[in-house]
Amino acid sequence: xxxxxxxxxxxxxxxxxxxxxxxxxxxxxxxxxxxxxxxxxxxxxxxxxxxxxxxxxxxxxxxxxxxxxxxxxxxxxxxxxxxxxxxxxxxxxxxxxxxxxxxxxxxxxxxxxxxxxxxxxxxxxxxxxxxxxxxxxxxxxxxxxxxxxxxxxxxxxxxxxxxxxxxxxxxxxxxxxxxxxxxxxxxxxxxxxxxxxxxxxxxxxxxxxxxxxxxxxxxxxxxxxxxxxxxxxxxxxxxxxxxxxxxxxxxxxxxxxxxxxxxxxxxxxxxxxxxxxxxxxxxxxxxxxxxxxxxxxxxxxxxxxxxxxxxxxxxxxxxxxxxxxxxxxxxxxxxxxxxxxxxxxxxxxxxx
Length: 352
What we know:
This protein is an alpha+beta fold. Among the domains are: 108-299, no CATH class; 307-349, no CATH class. The chain contains 18 helices and 4 strands. Strands 1-3-4-2 form a 4-stranded mixed sheet, sandwiched between helices. The longest helix has 24 residues, at 85-108. The chain starts with a helix and ends with a helix. The model is unreliable at 346-352 (pLDDT under 50).
């Protein structure tokens, strides 16, 4: 890692320009540019000022010089082609920063997942085969997936749910994921309706299982296919997808916890829905405004991650004071916007 790379990533995660960060940190923009491009090393005072401005500890910022690998690594991202680069690049930087915080925590708190997380070569296994094997290894019931977040966290997936707000670009970015040493980290948009969030989680699980090494021909299409089979196993759901109409789609959405549009696409791909009927159903959804906001989503059981919060809380349960916990996590005690997985434990860890 390099200190310059860490500064750039943290700055992007905050949505700051070089000019804005240099102003807050009280250094010149020219000096900041040299630091980021590794043309000059900041002294201890400059590191402290930059860390304060970025909401992290100086030790966390300097951790980049002591840890192997890159501070910023590639992520898998579920986003539309029209998502603005400024939006997804900031979210990409955020995930990398959260990964660094979580790696620091898992170095201090032992985590022993109950389930294994298999990885597959997409050139040897189809997405459908991979999804079926994950379900089989986890010994999941054959029907709908209940409590998807619980299954993922039992396999060691560290999920951070955050309101992307305006950053989502009008819901054009749903989620991101990457491996963090032995554990995957996901960042998902908690503003998304539950049915969309569940599909995003399954989609990112597909990336985690299929794309940790070699990439297939079309990673996004493969992750979509994995998610469809994982949430809606073909052998189980196929009989339910015959003679679809809006009323039946309502019932199936409640049963399977996925959107009506996902059900339509699943039926079409499994050959139980003709192209003409598919078009007719989409027209009926559009007429009612359901292509952008479907009914029943708020009736589905919410997916609420808790593993990252439990790891942070374990620091407090170990008797660490504010300074000690802050040094481990790497978040400045007075940071105005701590990571989402710290906010629930803020009183027990930060306040003292």
